[in-house]
Amino acid sequence: MADVVRLLDGRYPPRTAEQWDAVGLVAGDPDQPVRRVLFAVDPVAAVVDEAVEWGADLLVTHHPLLLRPVHSVAATTFKGALLHRLVRSGVALLTAHTNADAAAGGVADALAEALGLLDTAPLQAAPAEALDKHVVFVPVADAERLVDALAAAGAGQVGQYARCAWTSTGEGTFTPGPLAAPAVGRTGEVTRVVEARVEMVAPRRSRAAVVAAMRAAHPYEEPAFDVLELAAWPGGTGIGRVGRLARPTTLAAFAEVVAAAVPATAQGVRFAGDPDGTVQRVAVVGGSGDSLFDEVRAAGVDAYVTADLRHHPASELRERAEFEAREGRTHPYLVDVAHFASEWPWLAHAARTLESDVAGTGATVETRVSTLRTDPWTGRVASPEPTPTS
């Protein structure tokens, strides 16, 4: 279990989740073997039944079961009953929520790919994690041991590559003072040593641990080192995605593409705007996205696909769009899908990625994507056609 959780956390780092969110392993024994993993959007009773009946060892859901603090998980409550059944059946539960929304290969990327968007970029880019560059001068014979120590403390991780370091050699010189206890050289004598310059990057949050590891592994009483704060830049992750269709289409035809790409729900797919309007540049946000209208307008897109659009923000955006269209400015159309439907495409991505990552360790795992429709709405009645008046 611990190895699978580590791989999932590598793809969807818990530290990138929103502060209000609750992600990670909810229930389960880190020492438990994992052979089967079920992916689903919602941790509801029907999904738990599916996990138990299929013999899953781990259930990964997008939405949290325990988002708000609770004071009891007794089986007399519906959430407690679900947890009890999972534990009794040996099924662990892990949540990847807002940490999966923005991640590369996460919810936004999966929805964009399902709609055929090309050349995608984040709608609201998250800043890359603040990094330091650690520069250390060490005798050549001790360089590899020092690199190992810094890597163990969190340095040298670049994407999916670990223990990344750059070294060069040169001559260091120093004169030990009368109270020094030099590992090399003698008190009062000029000492020259062939040293390696070792450079490794590390998250700024790991600075204290990396420096402590360097001091512990370094043979010198007073090692020479620098810690340089690297410039920040926009990262490749973030909320939503913006991309383009391979060829322009109409809003009505694009809405049909959306309907075919996501699971069917009672709501279906709604759109606001001229059915014959042109759509090529598109923004998408999985889940509730009407808080990002300003970013959508700034992106200059033709259409915005998201879920849970509320009446007043959507009405205001549509009125503004119609006004700006008369002024010759951009006018994003709205395409509204069910919350569950907008996030479901990610499950297959997550399942394939986990199988590949596990295979890279020399092991295997079987994955399955739940096709249960966990959208809470179960039916819809169309409004009757208006009666013609004479």
From TrEMBL:
InterPro entries: DUF34/NIF3, DUF34/NIF3_bac, DUF34/NIF3_sf, N-reg_PII/ATP_PRibTrfase_C
Chain sites annotated for binding a divalent metal cation: H62, H63, D101, H339, E343
Keywords for this protein: Metal-binding
Domain of life: Bacteria
Disordered as annotated region, ranges: 365-390
Pfam families: DUF34_NIF3
Gene3D superfamilies, A to Z: 3.30.70.120, NIF3 (NGG1p interacting factor 3)-like (3.40.1390.30)
CC terms in the record's Gene Ontology section: cytoplasm
One of the record's GO molecular function terms: metal ion binding
Family: Belongs to the GTP cyclohydrolase I type 2/NIF3 family.
Subunit structure comment from the entry: Homohexamer.
The protein's name in its UniProt record: GTP cyclohydrolase 1 type 2 homolog
